[in-house]
Write a structure and sequence with these properties.
With 104 residues, the protein is mainly alpha-helical. The protein contains two helices and no strands. Helix 1 (21-65) runs antiparallel to helix 2. Mean pLDDT is 82; it is low at 7-12.
Length: 104
C-alpha cells in the first residue's frame, strides 16, 4: 500500500499506471537513502573492526607484559567480540524490502 506524502491528498491503494512522477521520484529517493544507509552501516562496521583489532592487540600485549593480568584480558576481548559480531550481523544481514502488491 502506498500513501501519499502530500497532506492534501490521501491515496490508499494505487496501481502503477496511477503513479505520478512525484511518487516515482519519492520511491527512487527512498531507494537511494536505503542504499546509503546500508553502505554507511558496512563502513562503520569496518571502522569498528579496525578499532577491535588495534584494541585487542594492545590488550594482549599488556597481558603478555603483565603475566598476572593475562587471564583477565580475555574478559574485555570476549565482550568486545560479542559486540563486534552483533554489529556485523546488523550491517551485513539481508534487508527485507517488500514491494506493495500493486507494484509487483
Amino acid at each position: 500500500m502506498l500513501h501519499s506524502t502530500r497532506p492534501s491528498q490521501s491515496i490508499d491503494l494505487i496501481t502503477m499506471d496511477e503513479l505520478s512522477a512525484i511518487e516515482l521520484e519519492e520511491l527512487e529517493e527512498e531507494k537511494k537513502e536505503r542504499a546509503v544507509k546500508e553502505a554507511l552501516a558496512k563502513f562503520n562496521f569496518f571502522l569498528h573492526l579496525t578499532a577491535w583489532l588495534s584494541g585487542c592487540s594492545f590488550i594482549l600485549i599488556m597481558g603478555i607484559l603483565l603475566p598476572r593480568a593475562l587471564p583477565y584480558v580475555f574478559i574485555p576481548i570476549g565482550l568486545w567480540t560479542v559486540g563486534l559480531a552483533y554489529h556485523g550481523f546488523k550491517a551485513f544481514r539481508p534487508k527485507r524490502f517488500e514491494l506493495p502488491e500493486e507494484l509487483e
